[in-house]
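Narrative summary of target 7.
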Amino acid sequence: MFTSLVNRGIQLWKRQQSLVPCYLNEYEVPLPPDTNSVLSVNRRTMFRQTGTPFSDMGGTASLAFDDDFDTACTQTAVNGSIGTVFTTATQITTAGILFGSAGTFGLFFEYSNDGVSYTPLTSTTTTSDDEQWLWVDLAGAPAALYWRVRSVSASDFFSVRELYFGNTPQEIVLGPWNIDDYTAMPNKTQGGQILNWYQQRDRDAPYLLVWPVPNNLAKYDLLVIWTHEMLIDVTDVTQAVDVPRRWYDAICAMLARRLCRSLEEGDMARYPMLVSEEQEAVMLATAEERDNSPVNIDPGIYAYTR
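Modeled conformation, tokenized:
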């Protein structure tokens, strides 16, 4: 049933935004898990904000802010924080971490005006690899003097190659290509900031093929990607169904029709009635799967109107 719903492509509740990093000289960009299809891609660039670095559990704090991916601030004890102090209150809207070692961390992104009492803006738990980026939006961030990332780990020391605090984001829409557009490019390794993408829809791990290939100009760029996700399979009787309440009636009708056909004790004389009930319920749910936003239709005739 969930496969059939995904193929309809109408499940608005499975449209999700992700921040996907760009890696130097990498033209394949892995997509988030459970991605079915990509809806849109923006490239975001920011202004990096720098102050006086600090690390409260050892390591050389300045190495996390030196714009050198080959150096790292590696702490010597667990549950430490790395951050920076600004001379004037500064708003940070996006933070990025380029990890210096593998580990599992609970990360808290925090701010303070006295360096003693910190307020967390958001948190996440991640299992990282060395030289792997993690980007986080800091929604509702105020201006503050102190900004830090605090790690919580049972045994892994926090190691950071680069800690990026950015604001004033600028986003541009990147153009999607079909397979002919991509394969027709004579130089697929040309470096620069990404302008176009093609989605390779592999079975297990779909990814983007991007052009130009990120170079030093793009090493702190990130992609803001909206994707259509697969529905989460039901594997346990206590698990909630991955649909909103507006789809409950349709899901029950779909299940009833399939069970009647599949179970030995099903009464096939009732099958036509169940088909009719399913069609009506799905039609009503489909009609409500909308966001009431304006619809823009581009006939694509610009080549004839220049």
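Residues 245-288 form one domain.
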